[in-house]
Amino acid sequence: MNHVRLRQLGGSSLRVSPLCLGGNVFGWTADEHASFQILDAYTAAGGNFLDTADSYSAWVGGHRGGESETVIGRWLASRGRPADMVIATKVSEHPDFRGLSASNVKAAAKASLERLGVETIDLYYAHFDDAETPLAESAEAFSELVDEGVVRHVGLSNHKPGRIRAWLEVCEERGLHAPVCVQPLYNLVERGIEADLVPLARERGLALLPYFGLARGFLTGKYRPGSADVDSPRAGKARAYLDEPRGRRVLEALDTVAERCGASQAAVALAWLADRPSVASVLASARDTGQLADLLPANHLRLDEESAALLTRATDPEPPEDA
């Protein structure tokens, strides 16, 4: 196994690899055989952090949700769980377990444990905010799961900074186990969280675990002006970045840095993200081992200051015209 320097996840006891393997494709664009190959290759290369959700992949016709967790559970049963493996999953979007009410959170956690075949979920996320449930009810439910040993640590995903702060305040007031991390959308071309969520994370010691780190595949460099259509469910959204001047600028910068580093554009984009303030690990998924091979260098690649600055400048917000 390749040695990967693990990082502490916020104030938690978890130590994770810089590249977190997204499980959204398991049982969807990667069938069980392909998923096992991807998981084998990822762990053989020193990765130790798997991210899934109970709702993956309910959006596919004929699927009910839980497909990804089931594949991961079968892989764990087949291979044996690596000693340092960290498994994260989420609740609120499964068709049978919607929202963040206390009863739903606990029932969904039990169902996830059964599919994964584990006794404890290392990191359990509130997947999306639930305005219909009192925030205190949700916070207490997650905290009780920690007390019961069902969950080791709590995370939030897709929550606005104000709601994250409110959740943290409830935990402080009531002596609850507080979230240790936030999973936001963040990448080289979508940097909006730098204005509000990043300062909050730094202030409160929260780890950031960005998803869509490759901007739906755009930052792999395979989408180019005039290029042939790419066979991907996300191709339309990824290609839209080409219509923005920043999109073309970042491709040029990625090409320059990738050539300089001898790495793929994808690995360079993830390495830039992994070194941003408060980021502990970056999520990316692969539907075959060939795609994974382009991502794995992100576990080791660290950009020099000049390369990182080149990428940052390429995607800095446009200054106002009258500035």
Query: Major β-sheet, in short?
Result: 8 strands, parallel
- For this structure, what is the CATH class? Alpha Beta
Mean model confidence by pLDDT: 93
Oligomer: single chain
Q: Which structural class do the helices and strands define?
A: alpha/beta
Q: Please compute the radius of gyration using only Cα atoms.
A: 19 Å
Q: Helical proportion?
A: 25-40%
Number of strands: 12
Q: Spans of 5+ residues with little confidence (pLDDT < 50)?
A: none
> Shape, please?
globular
According to CATH, the fold-level topology is TIM Barrel
Q: Please, how many domains?
A: 1
Question: What this model shows, in words?
Answer:
One of its GO terms (molecular function) is oxidoreductase activity. It holds the Pfam family Aldo_ket_red. This is Aldo/keto reductase. InterPro entries: AKR, AKR_Detox_Biosynth, NAD(P)_OxRdtase_dom_sf, NADP_OxRdtase_dom. Residues 18-313 form the NADP-dependent oxidoreductase domain. With 323 residues, this protein is α/β, with parallel strands linked by helices. It has one domain (7-221, 263-303): NADP-dependent oxidoreductase domain (TIM Barrel, Alpha-Beta Barrel), CATH 3.20.20. 39% of the residues lie in helices and 14% in strands. The chain is built from 11 helices and 12 strands. It has helices at 32-44, 67-79, 102-116, 135-147, 161-174, 197-204, 235-240, 245-261, 265-274, 289-295, 305-315, and strands at residues 7-8, 15-16, 19-22, 49-51, 86-91, 93-94, 97-98, 121-126, 151-157, 179-183, 207-208, 282-284. It has an 8-stranded parallel sheet. The chain has a two-stranded antiparallel sheet with strand order 1-2. α4 (135-147) links the parallel β8 and β9. α4 packs across α5, α8 (245-261) packs across α9 and α8 packs antiparallel against α11 (305-315). It is globular, with a radius of gyration of 19 Å.
